[in-house]
Queue: 3 jobs
Job 1
Amino acid sequence: MDEDTTTIHITKTLTSSMIVELIDKYPNLEEITCSPSVYNRTSNTYINALKQLDINVKRQYNWGAKSKSNGIEFYVLKLSNEGLTPKQISQKLEISLNRVYYLLRKANAKFDNRKRKYNHKEIKQLKRDGLKPKEIAEKLDIPLRSVYYILNKK
């Protein structure tokens, strides 16, 4: 039972059993919102009965999934800058690994000043200076595949 809630949004057509469940679950319910399509499918009898109980039914768009981040992007970016791997960040913040990758991509789109594991500018400059990828990898003591990745990244 949620006594503090006065407004709820529904996504299904109201039925008599649903109305009883809502009143039991939310005793202080004052307003039910739903999309216009759900409102149009709801019986006027139910809408009028709810009005007599001082519960208004309103049409309201409530599109799209709500953000689940709650400001967590900042912490993901901070931990990434501290050198934690996405898997470690996922475990520390108790969020899915895919969510960590998503938030890092989102953060990179906003701020492209994240610390990188390897200095991309230095690697590209060494390539312009005539060094081969294998020589760059040996000189900087980094994996050859990382050098190729950085050089091929657009």
Job 2
Amino acid sequence: MADNRSEEAYVEGTRFYKQNPLRGATRIAVRIAVGIVVVAAFLAWAVIDVGARKAYKEARDVRRALRAVGTEYYSGLTSIYDPASPDGLADGASEMIEQVSTRDGEVILYAWDDTYNVPMQFEYRKGLYRVVYIDSGNTSEVAAGVRGDFHVYYSLELFHFEAE
């Protein structure tokens, strides 16, 4: 009688295969690369966040300095705000703000309330950070220049072209 069975013996249970060592090394390399990318992204976020918080704190200090210097200019019957100036500040105001505050960035004053002697809108630039302050517009004496929003921006320079 003819038997149609194969000559291989059937063994019940687990079959073991020889694993390719290159496949194991590739898995380890991919895991290490993904780990490095995740850690690098977290560190970049942390560095940007710390810088943004520092710029925000300096912008708050600049707002206080603007009010103080504005009061000094007001006592001299002049205004700190000069719309004809590129930075919006009167002559000598930038130096006075630098002395009063702890900032080392650039201040651009966009709007000033002469009635309450407070900044309505200004921009503080430091490195790659830009902090824009916009007052809430509340014109009561208590809330004038105190309530507003700070917007912190981070920018990267992608290209730099020189004019010919």
Job 3
Amino acid sequence: MKKTISLIVILFASYVSYSQMQRNNNFQQRGMMDRDQIKKMLEMRNESLQNKNNQDNPLSFLNLSDEQKKKFKEINSRHNISSKSLKKEVMRKKLEMQLEKIEDNIDINSVNKLIDDMSDLVAELKKSEFKKTLELSSILDDEQKIRFQRLMIRKRQMEKSRLINRNLRI
């Protein structure tokens, strides 16, 4: 009798421990974490964001004077205002293109016109971006221009990687 009871207790204890292990394993597989792990991740994320904001801020990286910072912000805001309307127009043309694709009888002439209009708008955006880059570089000294060029190269690389990642998800 004692052997049977002890066997039942041992089996019950092993079942409970096995169930606990399975539960923890399921949490890990689902990506569930306990509070301490979540707090630690949040702290690390906040630290990395603070460091990123301090290091990757173009104004701090370029060591701009107060006057240069003011001109930098002025040029950027002027460009953002002008490019915002162009970007909205491109988006509107894309939506019109989607509507044309949905229709049963697709008018090829209107689709071609939409494509041409979108091409013109994108060209205007690129010209505006180039003009902004020239204006920004005109207020910099030689050392700052080199740093600015590095920033622009890094920006292009990030845009390319974003496009590649977006295309991989599709």
